[in-house]
Every structure is written in C-alpha cells, then in structure tokens.
Amino acid sequence: MAISNSSVAHVPSSDAKALAKIVAPTVAVLSLGIVNVALVTTSEAGEWVLVDAGLPGTALRIKAAAAERYGAGCRPAAIVMTHGHFDHVGALTRLAEDWDVPIYAHPAEHPYLNGSASYPPPDPGVGGGLMSLLSPLFPRGPIDVSARLHALPTDGSVPPMPGWRWLATPGHSAGHVSLWRAQERTLLAGDALITTRQESAYAALGKPPEIHGPPAYFTTDWQAAGKSVKVLASLNPEFLVAGHGRAMRGPEMRQGLRQLAANFDTIAVPAEGRYVDQPARGADGSAYKAPK
After folding, report:
1. CA-based nearest residue to 213, from 235, 230, 237
2. Where are the domains of the chain?
3. Rounded mean pLDDT of 24-38?
4. pTM of the model
5. Alpha carbon separation from 248 to 67, 86, 252 (Å, rounded)
C-alpha cells in the first residue's frame, strides 16, 4: 500500500549528511543498500545497542556510523538480533569480536547462530522480481557466534535495552523477534513486516515506502507470519522501523498496518508456493536443516 512522504519519519536537517539518520527519539537507522541496521540509544550517558548487523563487508560502515553518533572508539552494550538471515548477520562475527560484546537472540534462532543448522531453502517462485529469482544464491548459514550468544529472557525484557520489550514474531523465521518501546511507541519490526517490496531489486533500492508483508522468498510459515503482523498492528506504533525500506510514522502508517493485518492472506500470502501449504516450523524441527 503506497503512502505519502508526510508519513515518513522526519530526519532533522542537522542530520541530513549523517551516516545513520535519526528516525525516532532514541533510534537512528543506517541503510546498507537493501537492508537496515539500527543504533539505539539506551541512556542519557550515551550507552547504545546495535540491532542487527547488515550485509557481509559492512562492518566498517557500521563502525563509522557508530563513531559519528557516539564518538571514536565507542562500542555498544550488546548486539540484538531480530533474526539470523544472511543480510542481517553479515558483519556480526567481526563486530562482536572487535567490540567484544554479547549477542542476544531468541532461542529458536540460536541454531542458525551457533553453527548447528541452516535455514530452509528459499522459495524463488513467490513474490516476483529479481531478488526472489536470485534467492537460491543467498547464503542460508549457519554462522557460529556461540561464544558470545545469549538467549533473550523469557520475561520479554531486553537486558541491554531498558524500557524495551521483545515480541515473538515468527513466520519469516522460526525465532524472529521485533522490539517495542512503549514510552515512545517505537517499533523495530525486523522482517516481520517491511516498508518496501523487497522481492523487487528496484523497489528495495529506493522506491517510496509502502507497507508490505515479510520478504516472501525467505518466509517459511505464512500462518505464523500473519499472526505476527496482527500483534504488531495492535500496538498502534507512532514510529515504525523495518529491516528493509524507509522508516515511517503517523496515522497513515498505522492505517496501512491495520489493513495489512486484516487482509494479510490476500495482500501478503502467495497464491501458491513451497511453504504456503507446508510451512517449516521450529516446533516440529522442519525449520532447521543440516549445515551445508
């Protein structure tokens, strides 16, 4: 669903040339081509957390954005992962080692992060567009950051992010989570829903923002994905930051979320595809494949 430019989160003019753009009171986003990472300020003293870790080869850009925002030699309190797909963990190993910081993720996502399982094969026939066609070439993992890997607590808290909660939003992956700060109604949705048509390379690289379901070619449980979108829409966020596409805010964004939640089966779910009738789920182990 298309939205007007007035619905895009405002970036102050003083940050117009900054590497990471301020999109919410405590959140700055660094765009790394087709994917975003978030730098989240967690205290008035300038403590911060990195959410997701971008594409391979982007560690230096992430470090530069962090130094610009928090000062030379800075390091986060932790890295928090929404999930472990290749475009979100590309710089994770190097950054975690260089900064010597813990990594937090949902336990159902740990097999992809501790070297024990790969993601299920993608579905190149859904969604249309170049990105879908190329998806069989994308890495499926796993990586191994087990030495620094921690489980997000079962109480919904995010230890390095006071005031934030994690929400289980499976569907795009078995252990996908989104992050929510009620004080400012800020939602970091990861890939549970996105604001661009990620299947299209043209759209992913710069078309105006639109509310979309998760990237279709990597989504392995459409029923769970629809339930996750309903959970996120019910929050009525003021600020929305997704793993792909531009940050958005305001009533038109919320209307788009509600429409996606109410009509997910017709808007987002493919008419047919590998995982439409046979989902791959963490509960039965079908979401985990032997490492390649």
Report:
1. 230
2. 5-267
3. 96
4. 0.92
5. 25, 24, 9
